[in-house]
Amino acid sequence: MLAKTLFILLGLIAAAVPVSAVLGWLGLSMQYLESPMPLHRAIGDVVWQTGRDFLLVAIPMFILLGEILLRSGIAARMYDGMIKWLGWLPGGLMHANTGSCALFAATSGSSVATAATIGTVAIPQIAERHYNERLFLGTVAAGGTLGILIPPSINLILYGLLTDTSVPELYLAGFVPGFLLAALFMLTVIAMCILRPKWGGVPVRATWAERIAILPALLPPIGIFVVVVGSIYAGLTTPTEAAALGVIAALILAWSNGTLTVTMLRAAIESTMRTTSMIMLIILAAVFLNFVLSVIGLTQALADFVKGLGLTPMQTMLVLVLVLLVVGCFMETLSMLLTTAPLIAPIVIALGFDPVWFGILLMVLLETALITPPIGINLYVVQGVRTRGELSDVMIGAAPFVATMVAMIGLLLAFPDIALWLPSLFY
């Protein structure tokens, strides 16, 4: 049954069928192949029960927040500030890429939006400062992945919804791993630029007076982060209400900068509607698929198969990690999250692992999937912003950071407290 499901899934993906249609068609196919019951009659109820969940309202809010920050010029000024503060390190602006991605991730909640936004302002600097183009593009693609790990994260919200795990706990758990991974990205760049000094381009010099003068450019995203995340942990708002507050704060910042116009706002809303529609189609199709797989017994069959392997919990976890790394090469991350989390999370919890810890581990695995070919979405996003050259340049540039993410996965497996330490202080 599992082999049949994977065969249909990979076949539809290889045929370039849109992800939402793949998941919906797979659900219908498995119903007719494996169940005598007319499960398609439950589509309306399943979609309604999922679509009315208040937590999902946070998704368009966080997308709109990122769109406003991008179109109001706040992201470009933030990048200039990061250049002044991090440009002196070996690798120069490549550290500004990572730092800007980390800071933007702390407001947008989306990896694709993070990569696209920072890529738009960063990529023109490659030729001007003579950087190794492949490595520079790799830092943008890899740094963009931080959007699904550093709170507030749309993917963490969806994981919490799918597994009935506390979103505030997940947000707390994402802080240390998120910024640790950003630091590891920067160490990777430093190591490579020490080995190949020419890859680091022309150094960026800035005086302390210039760095202090540019600080106001870094304050808006930090302020929004404090509004969004601070309001949650102060007990004032839910994650959905916090996302709405973030949008209001972004609108105020855009107005204060003189960039809040009807044209800008209309473009931001239109882009938000397109992105939200795509995400919601995927979510609803995936929920129906998960309903079908549960009814036909695939979830239990998978659990029984794992138990039958006779492995220790850690050995089982290593097998699951390896499987997810392979699956991430062939599936888009959102569909991967929505199809694998409901199947694997119960097994992981039954093995005695913490669901919050597994949520963070899964996010790092999803991050890895974002930059692993052939279906690494951030690779295509960065290449799309670049608008020239070959996609293979981005793939080669991102390869060192795939290794860095695998090292991060190893750290989380060996030291779970990296993710669990901060939540343990509050819960």
Which terms would index this structure?
21 helices, 427 residues
Helicity range of the residues? over 70%
Q: Unreliable runs, pLDDT <50, ≥5 residues?
A: none
Q: Give the overall silhouette.
A: globular
Gyration radius over CA: 21 Å
Question: How many DSSP E strands?
Answer: 0
What can you see in these coordinates?
It is a single chain. It is globular and about 65 Å long. It contains 21 helices and no strands. The mean pLDDT is 81. By secondary structure, it is an all-alpha fold.
Q: Could you give a quick summary of the protein structure above?
A:
The chain is mainly α and 427 residues long. Helices cover 78% and strands 0% of the residues. Helix 4 (58-71) runs parallel beside helix 13 (239-256), helix 11 packs across helix 20 and helix 16 (313-327) packs antiparallel against helix 17 (333-350).
Secondary structure layout:
Layout lengths: L1 H13 L4 H16 L8 H9 L6 H14 L2 H13 L6 H16 L2 H12 L2 H5 L3 H12 L9 H10 L3 H29 L12 H26 L5 H18 L5 H34 L2 H11 L4 H15 L5 H18 L4 H16 L6 H10 L4 H24 L2 H10 L1
